[in-house]
Amino acid sequence: MGELKKVQSGSPLVIPAQTFNAFIDAARDYQDRQLGQQRTALSSSNDSGMVLLKNISGADRARFEILGINTPLIQPADNLDQFVNRPALSGVTPTAANHWGKFGVLAEPIRNGALGWAWVSGVCPVKIDIANANHWHADIADGSAAYLKSSGGGAAQILWKDSGTGVRWAVVRLGRWSPTVFPVNLTQTGGSQGTSTTAASWTYSVVDPVTNQTLATGVNPTASPHKWKRPSAGWMIAATFGYAHYNAQGQLVLGWINEMVEQEACTS
User: Fold this and answer.
1) Does residue 114 surpass a pLDDT of 60?
2) What is the DSSP letter of 51?
3) CB contact set of 184 (below 8 Å; sequence gap of 6+)
4) Domain boundaries in the chain?
5) Which of 29, 52, 263, 267 is deepest in the core (most CB within 10 A)?
6) Is the whole-model pTM more than 0.70?
């Protein structure tokens, strides 16, 4: 290659082909090194809770958006070596019915139909729709890839969040979803105490005792998904307190309440 010479201001610019090609080679080398650094960083992060996701949501997705985990791109029956050595999954717009606790936070922008890295465990930043400033867990927002939604339980433990409610930036720890049992106050709003031949039918408003936020209204604690069981007949004293959790579909579930059978002293 000939000597590369600088040009003085005002001099005619004549670039020999050999010199121009050297510029192109240098630029390509720089781009390759930058891309290599990015891939190396992401590949090393893969050992810390990242997985390759193919975006099949029907739209391009930005970094830190959310995709629901769908199915493996390569099934074990198709290519077992590739399935076990480099698992890759497809990602869709998350729904409460299918993706509670099963989602990835994108570590890079992913065009529709393309592959990219996403966090499925570990610590990462993400946007969360904070419904209650005292919520410290989050999971998918039904039908939205833009953010998670806070609740009393979920696969994302909130380590830090911006103040206030609404969509806020947060730092979360992604992991296995597990229900968190918490106390609730109950206010009887409907139903009846039952009779000697019929069951009680009390319904309640459910309130968070810490924040005084109403979590649900008109709740029949014996109806699905709640777990409370009443006698088939008899007078019942309405409850004032109980324990609840959120299930894998994000539904509030009353597990135990302090309803009591109304008793009278025996007469001789």
Assistant:
1) yes
2) E
3) 206, 207, 208, 209, 215, 241, 242, 243, 244, 254
4) 50-174, 182-261
5) 52
6) no
